Amino acid sequence: MSTPEQEVEYRQHRFSPPPGSTELFLVRHGESAPAKGSAPFDLVDGQADPDLAPEGRDHAERVGRRLADERISALYVTTLRRTSQTAAPLAAKLGLTPELEADLREIHLGDWENGLFRRYTHEGHPIVEQLWREQRWDVIPGAETMEAFGGRIRAAIGRLAAANPDRRIAVFTHGGVIGEVFAQASAAKNRFAFLGADNGSISHLVVSGDNWMVRRFNDTSHLQSPFG
């Protein structure tokens, strides 16, 4: 006696990275030292280069624990030491030496470097209001243009992806950079739509050629922070 054929079931699709693509975990550095008028930061190529604050070192340790088992093949940092300091715990766990990707350094704030951006934001400077209204960093006197910033970020992400096919990498970078990456990935009309990634947060991007796929943004579960 024949038995009825078993009906084929079609489960929902589960995402997997396309062959040859690169997974990037973009980590915002831990909290950096507060700006003080009496103790200006060191500068690297005209950009402020503060150390991590004690809270930032805790962020770095938590990031290291979170990513230690994620099959990461390479680490990247920028020219600014807060990124290498944040990468250090993970580098020690994985036995990897971070590589430098200078073009993923933070937006250059021109005349507002060395803590002045923090001060003027706190004081409600009118250019800060203009910056948010126009969604452009270059309303700040002497700041890097949006075109130059966006171009160097896209080129750097492209280089990292080309160098790491079928691999997972962790990139320790900056809030403005992460915001720009995800604005480009989503083709957001609001250029600042993804600005504000938390210190120590992890955002996840998959790059397959010219296709940038957003997997997660501003993951802070390892920081044990409540929704704010």
Provide keyphrases for this structure.
6-stranded mixed beta sheet; Rossmann fold; alpha/beta; phosphatase activity; 228 residues; globular; two-stranded antiparallel sheet; 6 helices
Into which percent range does the helicity of residues fall? 25-40%
Round the Cα radius of gyration to an integer and report it: 20 Å
The backbone outline, from C-alpha atoms, is: globular
CATH topology (level 3) name of one domain: Rossmann fold
Order of helices and strands: EEEHEHEHHHEHEE
Please report the first level of CATH classification, the CATH class of one domain: Alpha Beta
CATH superfamily annotation of one domain? Phosphoglycerate mutase-like
Q: What's the architecture of one domain, going by CATH?
A: 3-Layer(aba) Sandwich
Give the structural class: alpha/beta
- Spans of at least 5 consecutive residues whose pLDDT stays below 50 are none
Organism: Amycolatopsis regifaucium
GO molecular function: kinase activity; phosphatase activity
Protein name: Histidine phosphatase family protein
InterPro entries: His_Pase_superF_clade-1, His_PPase_superfam, PGM_Phosphatase
How does this model look, in words?
- By secondary structure, this protein is α/β, with parallel strands linked by helices.
- The protein has a domain at 32-107 and 158-167 and 185-219: Phosphoglycerate mutase-like (Rossmann fold), CATH 3.40.50.1240.
- Helices cover 33% and strands 18% of the residues.
- It contains six helices and eight strands; from the N terminus they run E-E-E-H-E-H-E-H-H-H-E-H-E-E.
- It is globular, with a radius of gyration of 20 Å.
- The model has no long low-confidence stretch (mean pLDDT 95).
